[in-house]
């Protein structure tokens, strides 16, 4: 495979997200890190025995744009390698930058759009359709979607009743991972509520370790913090209203959620490096500083999704033994939330290669390759869970599939990208400023509302 060898510092990890409000707290901590090898009929790279027939594309060029970098890009390239092997196509990976819609706009204007783009937001799919860039899913890909995906996941990739997106990658983003040795030394236990979480953090601090690692340099992690607190505390109805901007960001429910989040962000000794250090920490590093150093790391816990396991794999820690996980704690008497990220493949060219790639990505064949590597959950209900590398990830995958159609997309990813998905602007900038000064709840609310009002108005216009 021919790939462009530029690197991207900010690793985009599953910006699109859905909340599984019907799924109870996952019993993850008791899961071992051991095996469960892929199906005996799997190929050398974890690809299951082919379940879908792909066309011959000898010599045809297919380009794929995505914001993935680091370990995620490496694994996705293996997925594309298998597509090359089976079709004879020549596939190139095009590194994209956030916001990907802006990146694609420049490519389209230059007459060089990629064949397929991996879009991390519902709003991005809708915008690609509105701009007349996106091409509808073809017959063969549609068959795979109907066979392998629930109605809810198909609807997330549809605009105006027509299918455009194939959701290939999901990620449960309501998980708190912890260094098992640090937790044991502190005498702590897995918390089930926000108050218990803060108590556990204090116990870890008293043992001599900074309790929580925050990757604040990549502000999507901060939107995830807010959304988990808000969904649990305010409930699904309010969540839906705020996501659609039917209530303002100056609403008392937002004040309450920011105040709650400030109970963590406002305690400098609870955050590794303090707020300023967190703002200089990128997501992969936030994971590594929790698990490098044995029982004396820089932090004891890190919040984020199952993609954390990819960063853990670059350390000596083992998932299920050294690195364990519990569901995001319930806040204010609400349910424990579950937010899941996702990326959809959308064709930007009317080409045989683009449609063949969508068909492949909608099959269990492609999903099995990344599942074996870890840090990935597939919404494909026909993927054998034995493909996942350990019991922790198998349980996460089972919970995702069990949720069926009861899904909600991540709040920031339902918003116009100018508000919910652009570095240095909108919600991302407001929450980074809030991390710096979590006492300014009212000011943060005003900034959020001003930015949201402008973005939603521009979207309507």
UniProtKB/TrEMBL annotation:
The keyword Transport applies. Residues 32-51 are annotated as: Disordered. Keywords: Signal, Transport. SUPFAM superfamilies: Periplasmic binding protein-like II. Residues 1-27 form the signal peptide. Belongs to the bacterial solute-binding protein 1 family. This is ABC transporter substrate-binding protein. It comes from Streptomyces cavernicola.
């Amino acid at each position: 495979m021919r790939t462009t060898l530029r690197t991207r510092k900010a690793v985009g990890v599953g910006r699109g997200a859905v909340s599984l409000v019907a799924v109870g707290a996952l019993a993850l901590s008791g899961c071992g890190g051991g095996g469960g090898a892929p199906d005996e009929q799997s190929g050398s790279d974890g690809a299951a025995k082919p379940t879908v027939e792909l066309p011959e594309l000898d010599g045809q060029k297919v380009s794929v744009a995505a914001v993935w970098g680091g370990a995620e890009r490496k694994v996705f390239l293996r997925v594309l390698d298998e597509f090359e092997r089976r079709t004879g196509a020549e596939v190139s990976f095009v590194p994209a930058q956030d916001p990907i819609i802006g990146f694609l706009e420049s490519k389209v204007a230059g007459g060089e759009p990629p064949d397929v783009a991996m879009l991390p937001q519902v709003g991005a799919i809708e915008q690609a359709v509105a701009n007349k860039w996106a091409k509808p899913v073809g017959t063969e890909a549609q068959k795979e979607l109907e066979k392998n995906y629930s109605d809810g996941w198909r609807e997330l990739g549809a605009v105006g009743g027509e299918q455009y997106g194939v959701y290939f990658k999901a990620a449960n983003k309501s998980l708190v991972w912890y260094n098992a040795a640090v937790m044991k030394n502190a005498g702590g236990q897995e918390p089930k509520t926000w108050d218990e979480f803060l108590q556990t953090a204090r116990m870890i601090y008293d043992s001599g370790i900074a309790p929580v690692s925050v990757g604040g340099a990549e502000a999507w992690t901060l939107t995830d913090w807010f959304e988990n607190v808000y969904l649990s505390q305010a409930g699904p109805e309010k969540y839906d209203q705020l996501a659609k901007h039917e209530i303002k960001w100056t609403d008392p429910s937002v004040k309450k959620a920011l105040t709650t989040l400030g109970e963590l962000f406002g305690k400098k000794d609870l955050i590794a490096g303090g707020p300023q250090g967190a703002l200089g920490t990128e997501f992969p590093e936030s994971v590594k500083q929790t698990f490098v150093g044995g029982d004396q790391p820089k932090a004891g816990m890190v919040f984020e999704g199952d993609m954390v396991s990819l960063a853990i794999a670059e350390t000596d820690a083992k998932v299920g033994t050294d690195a364990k996980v519990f569901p995001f704690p319930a806040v204010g008497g609400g349910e424990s939330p579950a937010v899941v990220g996702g990326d959809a493949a959308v064709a930007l060219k009317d080409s045989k290669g683009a449609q063949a790639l969508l068909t492949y990505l909608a099959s269990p064949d492609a999903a099995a390759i990344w599942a074996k590597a870890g840090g990935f959950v597939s919404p494909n209900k026909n993927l054998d869970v034995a493909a996942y590398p350990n019991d922790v990830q198998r349980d996460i995958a089972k919970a995702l599939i069990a949720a069926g159609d009861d899904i909600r997309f991540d709040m920031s990813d339902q918003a116009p990208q100018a508000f919910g998905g652009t570095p240095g602007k909108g919600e991302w900038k407001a929450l980074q400023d809030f991390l710096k000064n979590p006492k300014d709840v009212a000011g943060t609310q005003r900034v959020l509302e001003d930015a949201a009002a402008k973005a939603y108005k521009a979207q309507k216009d």
